[in-house]
Amino acid sequence: MTPIEGQPILTAAEMRAAEDAVIATGVSVETLMDRAGTAIAHAVRRLSGSNDVLILCGPGNNGGDGYVAARVLAEMGVTVRIAALSEPRTDAAKSARAGWSGPVETFSEAKPAPVLLDALFGTGLTRPLDAHLSPPFGTSPAKAGAQLGEPRDSSIALPNWTPASAGEVSVVERLQFLATAANLTIAIDLLSGLATDTGQALSTPPVFTLTLALSAIKPAHLLQPAARYCGQIRLLDIGVPATSQAGVLKTPILPTPGPDSHKYTRGMVAIIAGTMSGAADLAALAAMRAGAGYVTLLGDSQGPPHALVRTPFSTHALANDRIGALVIGPGLGRDDVARARLDAALAAGHPMIIDGDALRLIDSDRIKALNVPVILTPHAGEFDALFGKSDADKVTRARDAAARANAVVVFKGADTVIAAPDGRVRIAPGSSDWLSTAGTGDVLAGAIGAMLAAGLDPLDAAGAGVWLHGDAARRLGAAFIADDLADALRCARAAL
Q1: CA distance 308 to 301
Q2: Same domain for 376 and 436?
Q3: What's the structural domain count of the chain?
Q4: Do 358 and 474 share a domain, yes or no?
Q5: Do 27 and 33 form a contact (C-beta atoms < 8 A)?
Q6: Which residue range forms the structural domain that includes residue 186?
Q7: Which residue numbers belong to the known binding site for (6S)-NADPHX?
Q8: CA distance 461 to 379
C-alpha cells in the first residue's frame, strides 16, 4: 500500500485507456484482475489479522477483483465469505468466479462480518444505488438488473432495477447495514455509490475506513462530497502505468536561507490594506510566518508584530522593484478607494495574488492582459462571480478558469483544486473542517504570497501555500482562529 501524496489522478476514461494500453501489449484482463485481487488480499490480510472477512461482489470487473481477493485470502487461511449482487457479467469476472471454490451468498441475505470489503461497482458508476433487492440471485439478465452504472468494463449494459418501494430494501441500505456491523470497512478502488470523476455522491453510502485505489487515484477520492465517505486512501500497484496532468498535492520542497541570505533574497511581500485592515494584517502575519524575509503592509494599520513594515499606500510605495509578490484583496472593500488601489496594483507590474474583494472588482479578460505571474484564490462564491456558475465538476471548472484568465487558480474549499493555464492540476487531500472560520482565506493568501516572492513557479507557489495552510491547521486541532493559523505556519514551515 502506497500513500497517495504526489500520485497521479486519473478519470474513469483515463483509467480505462491506461488499462487498454497494457492489454494491447499482450497482458490479459484476467491477468490484471489476478494482480488486483492478489494485491487487495495481501493488504486486507495485513489490516484484518485473523478476523473473518465478507466480500460484496458486483457483476462487473470490480466484483471479479473481489472473487480473486477471496480466493487468495482463503489460501492464506483467512475465513472468507462472498455475498454477490448477481452473477458475474464480464468474461474476466466469470473466470474469477470460477476460481472461487467456496459458497456464494445472496447479497440481500448476507450476515455481517468483522471485516467488510465493498467490490460491488467501483469506478464508472453513473446512477444511484436505489434499486431494490427483490430480484432473486441468479435470475436472468433481463430480470436481474444488477448493473446500476458501469463497472470497469463499461461495455456491459444491463437493465435498471426499479426504485425500491415501501417495505423493500435498497442496495445502499443493505450496504449501510453491513458496514455498520463491521469493525473494518474497505472499498476496492472506489466506494459504491460515488461518481468517479465529479465526486458526486449518487447515493449516500456509509463512511468507510479505507479505500484501496487500483493503479491511480481517482477524482472522487479527493473531491467532495465523495471524499468524506472514502476514509483513508491507499494506492495498490497492479502494473498499469499511470500518467496525468492532474496529481495529488505533495509536500513541497522549499528553499532555505543560506549564509549569504538576507531579507530581500528570502522574498519581499507587499500587502495592500483596505476597509478591513485586520484581514490584511492576517495576510501579512501569514507571509512572515511562512518564511518571507520582508513584508510591508500598504495602508492604514497599526499594532504588532513590530517586524511588519507599515507604510501609507501610494503608487511610489508600489514602485519598489524589490517586491516579489503583491497581495491584494483581503479586507480591500468594494468602494471607489478599493477600485483605485486595485487599478494601481495592476499597473505596478509585480507578480500578484488576487484574493477576496479584489476578485469581485475584476474580470478574467483584465487578468489575462497582465504580463506578470498571477495567482487567484477564490472560494466558491467568488469563483461563481468571476467565472460564472456551472454544473461541471470542480477540476474542469478550475482548469477552464485558469486557461481563461491565464493565471493559476486556487479554487478553495474542503477539496481545494489548484489549476494552471497549461492544464496541470493539483488537488489537496482533505483539510481540517475547523478551517471554516473567518480569516483563514486571508492567511492562505499571505502564505502563497511568501512562496511566490521566494521565486517558486506560480503553480508550485500556490501548492506550497495550500500545503502549509493545511498542515498548520492539522497541527492546531480543533477550535482555532485565523490568528492561531497564521502563527502555526511557522511550525509547518520549520517541519520541512
Answers
A1: 10
A2: yes
A3: 2
A4: yes
A5: no
A6: 12-244
A7: 61-65, 122-128, 189, 279, 331, 379, 442
A8: 18
From the list 114, 113, 119, 115, the residue with the least C-alpha distance to 100 is: 119
d(CA 141, CA 218): 29
Instruction: Compute the average pLDDT of residues 72-91.
Output: 96
Q: Are 131 and 162 in contact (CB under 8 A)?
A: yes
Tens digit of each residue's pLDDT (9 = 90 or more) over 178-230:
999 999 999 999 999 999 999 999 988 999 999 999 999 999 999 999 999 99
Same domain assignment for residues 227 and 360:
no
Which residue type sits at 444?
L
Which triple of cell numbers denotes residue 369?
Answer: 492582459
Provide the annotated binding site for K(+): 62, 118, 192
Backbone angles phi, psi at 484, to 5 degrees: -60, -40
Whether 206 and 278 share a structural domain: no
Q: How crowded is the C-beta side of 428, counted as CA atoms within 13 Å?
A: 26
Q: Which three cell numbers stand for residue 430?
A: 482533505
Over the stretch 358-407, which tens digit does the pLDDT of each residue have? 999 999 999 999 999 999 999 999 999 999 999 999 999 999 999 999 99
Residues 268, 270: Cα–Cα separation, whole Å: 7
Tell me the backbone φ, ψ of residue 46, rounded to 5 degrees. -65, -35
Distance between CA atoms of 45 and 487, rounded to whole angstroms?
Answer: 43
Question: Cell numbers at residue 305, please?
Answer: 508584530
pTM (two decimals): 0.92
- Annotated binding residues for AMP, written as ranges, equal 412-416, 441
What is the rounded distance in angstroms from the CA atom of residue 92 to the CA atom of residue 19? 14
